[in-house]
Every structure is written in C-alpha cells, then in structure tokens.
C-alpha cells in the first residue's frame, strides 16, 4: 500500500513563505504525476499544483507565480514551495498521485495545516 505523509505546514503572516514536503512510501513517484491539493472545511479538495514524470508543471490560477512544485525521485519526495502567502491560502494541504483527469490515485494522507494570518 502506498502511504503519503505531508509535513511543513504552520502558522505564518501574509507575505511569508513555507515549504511543504510529501514523503511517499513504495517508490512509486517516478511512475506518476504528483499533485498538491488543498481543502478548507466544507469544501472539496482543490488541485493547486502538479508535476509530471518529466517535471512539467501546472498550477491553479490562484497560486500561479507564487507556488512552485518540484520532485526528487531519488528520495521519493514531492515539495511545494509557497511564497507570498495570502490569508486565502489557509487550508489543509495534501499530496497524491494525479491521473490524466486530475483525480487522486491513492488513499489520502492526513495532510498538513497551513494558516496565514496577521
């Protein structure tokens, strides 16, 4: 079973930065596109960034220019660098494999909380 463990979240002020990490068990990241999702209470998870096997990236308009997704196949880790954070970025952030339709492939991990507030 593939397991996903997100880390790196925290409480920051607007304009500050965080880097999230996603550790993936099983060594499968080389086979799939990987994505970062976020979710607020009462709202469905939203795909905000993805990275393909060839390191091509895609971003939601709301984070474009501020967030950068990357991956390290050797360590089986996916990262999300978040700069210029805004209060509306507050959410629980999750990682997962992404299929051709933008849907998740594995069981969700616990996520990591990001709170942006002054």
Description:
There is one protein chain. This protein is an all-beta fold and 118 residues long. Helix content is 0%, strand content 47%. It has no helices and 10 strands. The chain has strands at residues 4-7, 10-12, 18-24, 33-39, 46-51, 57-59, 67-72, 77-82, 91-98, 112-116. The strands form 2 sheets. It has a 6-stranded mixed β-sheet with strand order 2-10-9-4-5-6, with no helix packed on it. A 4-stranded antiparallel β-sheet has the order 1-3-8-7, with no helix packed on it. It is globular and about 40 Å long. The protein starts with a strand and ends with a strand.
Residue share in β-strands: over 45%
Structural class: mainly beta
Task: Name the helicity range.
Answer: under 10%
Overall 3D shape = globular
Counted by DSSP, the helix tally is 0
Low-confidence runs: none
Q: What is the string of helix and strand elements?
A: EEEEEEEEEE
How far do the termini sit from each other?
40 Å
Sheet bearing the most strands, described?
6 strands, mixed
Question: Strand order across the biggest sheet?
Answer: 2-10-9-4-5-6
What value does the average pLDDT take?
93
Nearest-angstrom radius of gyration? 13 Å
By DSSP, the count of extended strands is: 10
């Amino acid at each position: 079973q593939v397991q996903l463990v997100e880390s790196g979240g925290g409480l920051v002020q607007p304009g500050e930065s965080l880097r999230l990490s996603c550790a993936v068990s099983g060594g499968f990241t080389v086979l799939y596109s990987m994505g970062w999702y976020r979710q607020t209470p009462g709202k469905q998870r939203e795909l905000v960034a993805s990275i393909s096997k060839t390191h091509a990236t895609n971003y939601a308009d709301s984070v474009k220019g501020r967030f950068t997704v990357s991956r390290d196949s050797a360590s089986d880790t996916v990262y999300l660098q978040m700069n210029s954070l805004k209060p509306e970025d507050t959410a629980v952030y999750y990682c997962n494999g992404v299929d051709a339709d933008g849907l998740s492939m594995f069981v969700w991990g616990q996520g990591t909380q990001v709170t942006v507030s002054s």
